[in-house]
Amino acid sequence: MSRIQELQAFDPDAVQLVARKVAAISGDARRALDICRFATEVVTSTKSSPKKKCKVLIGMEHVDIALQQMFSSPLVLAIRSSSNIAKLFFRGMLSEFMRTGSEETTLLRIHQ
C-alpha cells in the first residue's frame, strides 16, 4: 500500500479505507490492489474528456464506488445467497485449491 501512496494518485484517506476494508475481510494484498485498480477505472470512466491530461486524485468516493461494485457482483451475491451446504462445499473446494495450488479438483478430493 505504501507504493500506492508514493504515486500521489490516491488520497491518503482513500488508501486507508482500502487497507481497513481488506484487513477486515481477507487481509489479501491482491484484493487491495484490485480495489485500487477498480477505483482508477471508475475515475477514467467518469472523466468528461479523454483528451485532457489533467491529474485527478482518486478519492474516497471513487474507492467507495469500487468497493460497492466489487462486493455486489453477481458471483458474490450468488455465493451469499447459497444454502449452508453449498457454502460448506465452496469452503471445501477453496481449501483444496489452497492446499494443492491447483484450480481444478474432483468431488472425491473435496470429500476427503
From TrEMBL:
Its main location: nucleus. Gene3D superfamilies: 1.10.8.60. Coiled coil: none annotated. Pfam families: AAA_lid_10 (PF17872). Keywords: ATP-binding, DNA replication, DNA-binding, Nucleotide-binding, Nucleus. GO terms for cellular component: nuclear origin of replication recognition complex. GO terms for biological process: DNA replication initiation; mitotic DNA replication checkpoint signaling. Residues 10-43 form the AAA lid domain. InterPro entries: AAA_lid_10, ORC1/CDC6. One of its GO terms (molecular function) is ATP binding. It is found in: Nucleus. PANTHER family: CELL DIVISION CONTROL PROTEIN 6-RELATED, ORIGIN RECOGNITION COMPLEX SUBUNIT 1. ORC is composed of six subunits. Belongs to the ORC1 family. Component of the origin recognition complex (ORC) that binds origins of replication. DNA-binding is ATP-dependent, however specific DNA sequences that define origins of replication have not been identified so far. ORC is required to assemble the pre-replication complex necessary to initiate DNA replication. This is Origin recognition complex subunit 1. It comes from Stegodyphus mimosarum (African social velvet spider).
